[in-house]
Amino acid sequence: MKITRVEAIPFKIPYKTPLKWGLAGYLEAAEHVLVRVHTDAGVVGAAEATPRPTIYGESQASIVHAIRDWFTPMITGMDPCHIEKIWAKLETIHWNPTAKGAIDLALYDAVAKSYEVPLWEMLGGFSDRLPMSWMLGMRSIPEMVQEAQDMSARGFKAFKVKVGIEPEKDLQVMKALRESLGRDVLIYADANMAYSVSTAIRTIKKMEEYGLAFVEEPVPAWDWKGRLKVARAISIPILGDESVFTPQDVAREIDLGAIGLISIKTPRTGYTLSLKIVHLAEMAGIPCLMGTQAETGVGTLASAHFGAARRNVSYPSEISFFLSLKDDLLAEPIALKDGFIQLPNRPGNGAVLDEDKIKRYRMD
After folding, report:
1. Active-site position among 121, 190, 217, 328
2. Which of 41, 47, 227, 270 could form a disulfide with 1 if both were Cys (CB 3.0 to 4.6 A apart)?
3. Alpha carbons 218 and 227: distance in angstroms, whole number
4. Active site includes 225?
5. Which of 97 and 18 is assigned the larger pLDDT?
6. 3-116+355-361, superfamily in CATH?
7. Which 3-state string (H, E, C) describes 180-207?
8. Catalytic residue among 113, 157, 160, 265
9. Does residue 60 carry a catalytic annotation?
10. How do residues 304-357 score in pLDDT, each as one tens digit?
């Protein structure tokens, strides 16, 4: 089996409600790139690239350019099973993490289809279902509480809360959510690096009174001394995200000793680098969860297979944002029951694409 071509299709699907986070984060739509790797055996692997200019420095246009003009010529004619050989080619171009990540995910999808097995079996085989959390963006406190109640009624038992701009409001939100949802629901906060060290310590200590489970990136990722200071001052773990983009970042943070959980995002690390990260974390005794990039159903299925396959992905995963889309590229909706994604038993990632919807939402 040989790679014959790689498609990079930019598309845009609006969200039902804009997502706000951190100092400047704001999304009104999934303006992403559908990536399809075609082979001479007729097998096609699919994945989703998620541009985040403010995080990774990639745009829709740059991802399409990188895939069409750089990476496709490099890997055309290669066997999609030869992942290490392919990465040796991809790594000759610096960064471009989600362009590379999407190619990697699509390659694994194609290989699993050729073997006629679901990806969760090929990637580790631990489970075919994955518990989910729900992310609450920055809105008014009544709106956030109502949203949490609505999603709790749909079976969600874990909630990620965006904080970091107004510490006093953040405390009020935590108190209101805990009173509304009860003691058995897992609640954690994500400051998206917006707190100062002193504010983080003061605010998180007060949040702990409301049963906060852990906190994600309370201070800037570059401030490793500040992160360590916060970790030593609070009694709950820090979840690493912006500080653990790569396996090398993970190795550094493990040595530093500041983080207690790791967010794995397959859109930026594919399966190849995600496997390295989960192995590093497991050997260090650090659990993981699957972080969200606000993917559509295509990217959600890709991440869910990895999370379900690996036993060290032991916390509820955040990849439920597909429920906030006004539409999707999938012809068949994702099976979600009692706060769990039930993975399809089809070969590969199980995504069945709707070609009419691709035509409707593509931007080229």
Report:
1. 190
2. 41
3. 8
4. no
5. 97
6. Enolase-like, N-terminal domain (3.30.390.10)
7. HHCCCCEEEEECCCCCCHHHHHHHHHHH
8. 265
9. no
10. 999 999 999 999 999 999 999 999 999 999 999 999 999 999 999 999 999 999
